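Might I ask for a little of your time on a matter of protein folding? The record follows directly beneath this note:
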Amino acid sequence: MTDFQTFAHLASIDLGAPEPKPTSISGEQVEASRTLWTSPEGTLEVGVWECTPGRFTAARDTNSETCHIVSGRVTLHGPDGRSETVGPGEMLVLPKGWQGEWTIHEKTRKLYILHFEA
């Protein structure tokens, strides 16, 4: 039988000790994350991630990502020069193949869903 799981209080889930962000290009960013659930076939991963202010590069070469901002504020910068700022309660989708940069304006926490093709 397959059952459901619930996760409350995303803002206070312990993510463990933060570590330096490897793709950071400005600021002394640190990040931490915790995987909450992974599908049995490994094509979906749900978790919580947090990062300190600064700017970093990101690429969705092998997966798409859906994010719900729990706290903080970020600006996404696409390869075409488009920028969009999102904050608490807002959602964003990065399709497979997206490349760009994130500017973290204040410590930010997000719920993420990664989708990998089978």
Residues 47 and 105 are 21 Å apart (CA to CA). The chain has a mean pLDDT of 95.
